[in-house]
Amino acid sequence: MNGGADLGGMMGFGPVADSAEDAPNYKADWEARVMGMVVALGACGAWNLDQSRFSRESLPPADYLSWPYYRIWLEGVSKLLLARGMVTEEELARGKMEIPPAPVKGCLTARDVPATLARGGPVDRPAFQDAAFAEGQRVQARNIHPESHTRLPRYARGKSGVITRLHGCHVFPDTNALGQGESPAWLYQVRFSAQELWGPEASEADSVTLDLWEPYLEAAL
Predict the structure, then answer these.
(1) If you compute the radius of gyration of the chain from its CA atoms, what whole number of angstroms results?
(2) Fold topology of 124-219
């Protein structure tokens, strides 16, 4: 969706500053707690990765752009808990359980955290059909504006690039975020020149490489 998270190529937000190499992972204790809650709740099996991302991206843009990073994560997971009846508004406000806990598919214990994080959540899937495009082929990103989650950045829509690698088939985020199934699709690495994306004033030497799913692409004319 075209929300507060889709900032690529937009002006007026200042430079992107790198954190110092020795900077702490969390600026406050509550941020670490939020991260722990999000990981533990993800193991419940009540939502998938793309639904989790969409819960954050669909926050009101004014809030998304003004809240600190982990406040966004907290609000996103709160939306998911409410939508699935795992908590009530009153429980969130009071910080105290008032109804019996909802049954969940899984539970992450402290001793299982390292192995679970190391294992991750692979999203590659077996290919069920041949790829529509080949390495070196010129393609164009579709000019689409879905209302739900998508991994096609707004600044690349309608722009042409060259496929530089085939990644195989992966879960398609646009359907997965809506609970409509994984719908695995081919994933391509596509290189766009900076001038194609931002006009002739951009450097000829610069380019941007994106990983884009097949439904986002069409053959360039």
Answers:
(1) 20
(2) SH3 type barrels. (2.30.30)
